Amino acid sequence: MNLKRGMSNPEVLRVQERLQELGIFTGAPRGNFGEKTEAAVQAFQQVNGLVVDGIVGPKTREALFGAQEPPSEPSVKMGELPLWLKEALLDLGKGVAEIAGPEDNPDIVEAHSYTSLGAKDDETPWCSSEMCKWMERAGIPSTKSAAAASWGSWGRELKNGQLGCVVVMSRTGGNHVALYLDEDDVGVYCLGGNQGNRVSVRRYSWDRVSHCRWPE
Questions:
Q1: What is the pTM of this model?
Q2: Which domains does the chain have, with CATH numbers?
């Protein structure tokens, strides 16, 4: 049986507990397949080269638990991922997003505190603020700038994208910054903040990419 958003049963609880072991799911495992569980499943699928649909089907289940029960080794060894990517995956699993109306998401406001701008709302563009937060929490000096373009001269340039590298892109009216996860002929899959007003995974066309950067 495939598991997907809206379902509630012991198998969902088991998946949540497994994702929590891997450091991807940060909610409280209760057996309810909601938005945070879906985001955690999508993150797991992305780093394991699976179809990113947020549904726990046979291939995702096997990657999570292996061919035998219980699993012997996790498919995703979080300790092997760049620390800043782990921080980003935690925010993805947490479901960090803007709050409609006068209220502001404290997670986004906190991200702004890592920049010299120090905005106090979740409406000020925050992709660079999230990147600063993820890097600083991982012990890597950031640009401390709320401007996505600032990452174009940060660290060192890579000839090709690699898991966790910083991708700087153009957008209408400015720039965008996110973390590289994967690529195909059409574009690059990135995990970033302020993507659809939330921390999410999106694909961007190659003609928008200007830099792929890595810490010095």
A1: 0.70
A2: 10-79 (1.10.101.10), 82-214 (3.90.1720.10)
